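Section 3.1: Structural characterization of target chains.
Under the original work plan, the team committed to producing a structural model for every single-chain target entering the pipeline before any wet-lab resources were allocated. The record below documents one such target. The sequence was received from the expression subgroup and is listed exactly as submitted; it comprises 366 residues.
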Amino acid sequence: MKKILCVVGTRPEAIKMAPVILELKKKPWAKVTVLATAQHRQMLDQVLGFFNITPDYDLNVMKPNQSLTDLTARLLIGAGEVLDQEKPDVVLVQGDTTTVMSVALAAFYRQIPIGHVEAGLRTGDIFNPFPEEANRIIAGHLATWHFAPTTSSRDNLLKENICPKKIEVTGNTVIDTLLATAEKDITLPITLPKHERLVLITSHRRENFGEPIQRICRAIRKLAEDNPCICFLYPVHPNPNVKLVAEQQLADLSNVVLCDPLDYAPFVAAMKMSHLIISDSGGVQEEAPALGKPVLVLRQETERPEAVTEGVVKLVGTDYNRIVTEAQILIDNAKAYAEMARGVSPYGDGSASKRIANRLEKDLVI
């Protein structure tokens, strides 16, 4: 038996690591242990509950408005204690959060091999997204296995002189989870006003705090006022840097629905119902194209260029005029909308988790 420690800290990590955990648990050679750092608390618990995954260890590190320094220090200490107790053969981390970087560093200090799920994403700007770009570079250069979601991600790793034999192009595990969830009949836990179409909005990134989120909300307000027959659904991140601004600028509009973050399955249902999605989420950039939903990305750069190249995702940044103009085009222009709503998914076929498990079995067992 090989001991595999799978680590999740945030909701996106749980969504993308869940199918890997479930696939590895089927393997007779693998003893799977789950460490939850709870960098996000409630949102993480929702996803783990949906997949019936119970963490074996829980660091519970979430604190309101904590600094990255404090978070990193507590993660290093807490993860180190778990690693010393568990002594795994492999540590699997997913993505680019502070959890990923800190746990990878703690494993490296103990010379425990690291598998990096969703490896090789890059913008080329170490401060955008912040701190994720640095997190994934650090974790990547400590890893033994690089499970790259696309050939572009593989090419990024090769440019950084990562050994080609350590890279496995698997597809993105988020598509595994999405396709399985989208097949289910899921209803929203909130009542929406009856309008012709739905626009789904998410925004949570640290680099968009302050004036950027103010501009985003002003743009949403303009779109809602100009399109009274459209419902704008905004599940608002609980961080006060986002929540307070959204409530101040949008709460009085009858066709804007502000709600708490949706559980994963209802969020997939909301994506399926939507006409258009406006978001700064990396996961949404991957998921929505597979559902045939155009995405306007509230970022200047993206580490997921494949969907942009395919023309199903468009970068609009946080510029007020650009958000309003591009969204209105997709609302008014059926031809422009059809060009982006083609259902093209460059991120996988739903078998990424199997490829990851097979590669680990090949290297660890066979």
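Residues 268 and 329 are 24 Å apart (CA to CA).
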